[in-house]
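Ticket #4471: structure export looks truncated?
Reporter: QA, pipeline team
Priority: medium

Steps to reproduce: submit the single chain below to the structure queue and open the exported record.
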Amino acid sequence: MKNLDCENLGNALANDTIALSAHWHTPVLANQVAAALQPGPGKRFLDGTAGGGGHSRRLLDAGASVVALDQDPEALARCRANLAEFGDRVRFVESNFRHAPHALTSLEIHGDLDGALLDIGVSSHQLDEPVRGFSLMRDGPLDMRMGPSIQENAADLVNTRGTEELTRIFRELGEEPNARRIAAAIVARRASKPFSSTLDLADIIAAASPRKGPRHPATRVFQALRIEVNDELGALREALRTIPPLLTPGARLAVITFHSLEDRIVKVFFKEHSREWIDRPEWPRPRRNPERQFRLLTTHPILPCEREVAENPRARSAKLRVVEKLKDPTP
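Actual output as written to the record:
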């Protein structure tokens, strides 16, 4: 699996294209995901973050059936229209992937998945729509919610949380070195005028932490706010716990991440649940790992090749990790 990149998949995959309308974007690491999940007729997959439907299309084109989840009703509606040609081989549920077991139960599906994919993070369509409040480049309401069921938006957060809490959010979820200075500037400004728009917040952040390089100074803070508003790391941890029981032996779980916080969670979880032996200093000898349930297929993450990054710059930070559920976890 470590050599599974878009330069080594052969012409049949490398030259394949996906028919997408102007509102759709080529899915990240599409060739690599399709090769890793091994779709085929009679197989059923979960696409936990359907978005534009690009990854689901690859699975469906191979003859598989798909349960497509997305917590964003706008994305799900577009996905439904884009994949209409596949009829009842694809079924849709408006849901966060953390609730995958409930989503499948609502369709009277009780596990038996041959594979699952999670493509973590904000979609290109959400970034491109100023009204969603994710963009630093165009003004819009300070929202950042990925779905209507989420109660608190980004404006609520920056206008109510204290300096210490904002500092923690920016530092832990955005890895922002100037977290405290930015938090203090936000709290001071909102005393006279609450924040309601993206560019207003971005300007205050830029004033508190001037640009040092090509990246906009508000990038890390916007990432942190988005993660906090949508509880993205909590959702990922819950999905990693609840999705594996839905997989049949030999099924594969693939996760695409876009920043180090997500990737670290996936890396550690896959490692802890795939190693055969565990050891501690106080033990006389290593012991079998009672939580072992996977075979690790990617010792190192699969990365996009230069061509993909050139064609889709948003792919540059993507990392794909894959595991296979063991047929018999007991050695």
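Status: closed, not a bug. The export was complete when the record was re-opened. Leaving a note from the reviewer for reference: The two ends are 23 Å apart (CA to CA).
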